[in-house]
Amino acid sequence: MQKFVYYAPTEIVFGQDTELQTAGLVKKYGGTRVVLIYGGQSAVKSGLIGRVEQNLKEEGLEVLSCGGVVPNPLLSKAREIAKAAVEFKADFVLAVGGGSVIDTAKAVALVLAAPEHDVWDFWSKKASLEKAAPLGSILTISAAGSETSNSSVLTNDDKTPPTKRGINSDSFRCCFTIMNPDLTMTLPVWQIGAGAADIFMHTSERYFAKILGNHLTDEIAVGLFRDIIKYGPIGVKDPKNYEAMSEIMWCGSVSHVGLTGIGAKGDTAREGDWACHQLGMAISALYDSTHGATLSAVWASWARYVKSQNLPRFAEFARKVYGITEADDEKAADEGIQRTNEFFKSLGMPLTITELLGHEPTDEELTKLADECSYDRTRCIGSFQTLDYDDILAIYRMAK
């Protein structure tokens, strides 16, 4: 086992009706003036936003509510809310929603700590990421894991075509997250399936690492794979199944809190691959596609393209996760890839880019995707196998 530092400061409050504890948690972490950020009108119509507002106000907290965050969250909306939060003199940011809302809240928290900066200054590394206002979250979509991660992703809609970028900082980790599985039961099954795919991928990106060496970390990852493979399809078929929705929700947080990547690279967590996320983010940027669906559309093509870098790793994945008994590593690896595609299909997720987009992309479209993914041919992606522009384009063509 290698040296590592593990940091996961988020207080997790899990269970039914836990959103009623919101005000006490905000006050615990120093909040008095709260900017409450949410997405569409479903959270309002369900009564959740009203209940949370009432809970905060009954405890003497001032509240500014800002809705309208969309999937693949936009820079323009983050700027709008950040401006309103600064004018309101907010000292706490509360996200009520899924990854897009929480990622937007993280952007607002950075601006509240340094209001002289534009939101994109942090994404373009023109401003420091070392300080942010305190924030918390009430999770309503199990998927991105942003409630326990140090990551935030925004789509810069100032650019044509838009571009999607992510940053990492421990400064904007949530102080607390409230996780009530009941709040996820009214989601469309498409979102539940896409969320389960994203959860699987957060562990896949860490499991298929170039540097290995922590067996307990691998066992945690394998357990998470098996749990989401079991309960993800159950949640899609029966969103009212509390056991399934609870397991999906907890898998979502654990998958992105860093546990499945500990202990195999110097003084930090295992360096994950993240190539599939970069491939998927380019699709989301150009087509506004659902994040989890972009990942399922490219994973098998990526896996087949890179498996020769460490074939025993893919074979081990197949045997431990799916119980495959094939002795030949290559045959076992191929069966594991196929079984993963079957899992994605059971979630209702696309297995190709054509299926995702609803049309067969032209080679010009695939070239534009490769340009976006490679930042106009200025970067490579991945660590399991480093992928340059030509590799990226080849995977997109395989995934077509």
UniProtKB/TrEMBL annotation:
Domain Alcohol dehydrogenase iron-type/glycerol dehydrogenase GldA, residue spans? 9-181
Which of UniProt's keywords are assigned here? Oxidoreductase
Q: Which GO terms describe its molecular function?
A: alcohol dehydrogenase (NADP+) activity; butanol dehydrogenase (NAD+) activity; metal ion binding; methylglyoxal reductase (NADPH) (acetol producing) activity
One GO cellular component term of this record is:
cytosol
Q: What InterPro entries does the entry give?
A: ADH_Fe/GldA (IPR001670), ADH_Fe_C (IPR056798), BDH-like (IPR044731)
- One Pfam annotation, family name? ADH_Fe_C
Q: Where is the Fe-containing alcohol dehydrogenase-like C-terminal domain?
A: 195-399
Is this entry keyworded Transmembrane? no
Domain of life assignment? Bacteria
Recorded protein name is Uncharacterized protein
Species of origin reads [Clostridium] aminophilum
